[in-house]
Amino acid sequence: MAATTFGLFAVLLIAGCVFHLFFYRTWRRNRELNEPFPASWRQLLEDRVPLYRALDTSRKRALERRVQLFLAEKSFYGCDGFEVDEGVRVTIAGHACLLILARPYSDYDEVRSILVYPDAYHATGTESDGYVVSETSEIRAGEASTHGQVVLAWTECEEAASNPDSPHNVILHEFAHQLDYLDGSADGAPPLSGEQARRWQSTMTDAYEHLLNTLEHHDQPWLDPYGATEPAEFFAVLTEAFFQTPASLKASQPAVFGALKDYYRLDPTSLRQQT
After folding, report:
1. Complete domains list, the chain, with CATH
2. End-to-end Cα spacing for the chain
3. CA-CA distance, 28 to 24, in Å (whole number)?
4. How many CB atoms lie within 10 A of CB 150?
5. What's the whole-number mean pLDDT along residues 250-258?
């Protein structure tokens, strides 16, 4: 009898472990998506995510589903006394989920927390010249880490929400870094394979070198110079341009625009014409 009870317990334990490892996340997400999308969230998307207004009905629902999961799974924390309310959460989630509107939601599985400062904030770090390690301090509008954390300055987020024609969008920028981290390194190339990876490498290398040469000769750059800092920043700044000023990017760098279009699986120029 004892052996039978133990065997039954072992079977149930194994079944529970298998369910948790392979099925629980899907079950939990399906349960979340069975809940109606709040009308107040939909109004916030209308008011604060300009591209949402240009989406057709099916894509609006797709964005809403991603926002719904994002808000259910990610933790938000206010810093320096900042209060994270519903408007803050939906604004950030709405812009962040534009990057995965036509991509799998699982691209954000590793994102765990979003820290929000009221304004640009001081960040400290260390740097070494090989012999001496010194502490650095700089003012930042946002940052992302490989540990699934995103930090944002709310004033910069508000600017992105209120000025759709601005070339800058700190939310898109920092969440582009999270996509870059998916393959384990911040190298300016999200996970790709086969011909797409080869085309990305060739296109982005040529474009990055072109930007560096342009700046070196003091010519007018086709991208925010911050993109020339390193390949990881190049991808993040390109992502901002792709969603914020797609027509300009397409005209100046059609191959780059095409690579981003293939990766994000949508064409923002058609949406921009409707905003």
Report:
1. 23-272 (3.40.390.10)
2. 71
3. 6
4. 23
5. 97
